Amino acid sequence: MAIAKQPSTKQDILQHLLKIGQASAQELADALEISPQAIRRHLKDLETEGLIIHQQVQAGMGRPQHVYQLSQEGRDRFPSRYGEFAVDFLDTLTETLGYEQASTVLRKHWERKAMEYRVRLGKGNLRDRVAKLVELRKAEGYMAEWYPVQESDCQFILTEHNCAISHVASSFPSVCGHELEMFAAALQNCKVERTHWIVNGEHRCGYLIKEQ
Q: Any idea which fold 83-211 has?
C-alpha cells in the first residue's frame, strides 16, 4: 500500500516524523496546525496500523509524555527504489563473482553515477550545485534538503530524511561509503563528511560539504 493512499493528515504526520525523528502530540499539533485532539486520533490510528511507535519521556517535573516516531513499517511506506530486488541481485552477484568482484561492480556503478551528476550539476558556484544535487536526489525518492552553515557560501549541510536504498544499505553498508565518494566526485573540489547515518539508527543521513 503506497503512502499516497493514506489520508492527507496522516501522510503529513508520517512525513513530519520522518523529517524530525520524533515528536509529541502537542509538537505535531503545533507544527501541522491541527488540534491536539485530532492529532491524537490520527496517532492512535497510525499506531494501530503499525506505522508509528511511542515511548514515554520524562519532561521536567511533570508527568511523562508520549513521544512518537516511525516504525520500520512506517519508513517502508516511503520510496525504496525496489530495494528487495536490489538486495537479491547483489546477493546473487556476490555468490557468483565473490565479494571483492561484487564490490568492484558497486564502485563502478557509483563512479558512473557521480559522472552523471557532475554533468547535470554543471560548473556554477557551490551553492547552486548543492541545490541542484538536492533536486536530483528528490527525484530519485530521497526526502532531501540543504542549507548553508552560518550563511556561508563555502560550507553546506545536505540532509536526507529517508534512504531510497535503505534495504540495500542494511545488507551492504559499503554502498554508503561509495555514496559519500560519489557526492565528493560529483561536486568537485569539495570535501564531503558524513554527519548522520540512518544505518546507525539515526533518523536521517547528513553530509557536511566543504569547498576546498
A: Muramoyl-pentapeptide Carboxypeptidase; domain 2 (3.30.1380)
Secondary structure (H, E, C), 87-141: HHHHHHHHHHHCHHHHHHHHHHHHHHHHHHHHHHHCCCCHHHHHHHHHHHHHHCC
Beta carbons within 8 Å of 38's beta carbon, 6+ residues apart: 9, 29
Q: Where does residue 151 fall: left (phi above 0), alpha (psi -120 to 50 degrees), or beta otherwise?
A: left
Instruction: Please tell me whether residue 163 adopts helix, strand or coil conformation.
Output: coil
What's residue 43's pLDDT? 94
Identify the segments of the chain with pLDDT beneath 70.
1-7, 59-62, 79-85, 163-167, 169-170, 199-201
Q: Which CATH number fits domain 3-76: 3.40.50.1970, 1.10.443.10, 1.10.10.10, 3.30.565.10?
A: 1.10.10.10
pTM: 0.59
187 touches 130 (CB < 8 A): yes
What is the model's pLDDT at position 5? 42
Q: What sign does the CA torsion over 139, 15, 166, 201 have?
A: positive
Residue 175 CA to residue 194 CA, distance in Å, equals: 13
Q: Helices 174-187 and 126-139, interaxial angle, to 10°?
A: 140
- Give ranges for CATH 3.30.1380.20 in the chain: 83-211
Q: Could you report the per-residue pLDDT of 8-66, keeping only the tens digit for each?
A: 889 899 988 888 888 999 999 999 999 999 999 999 999 998 889 888 877 666 677 88
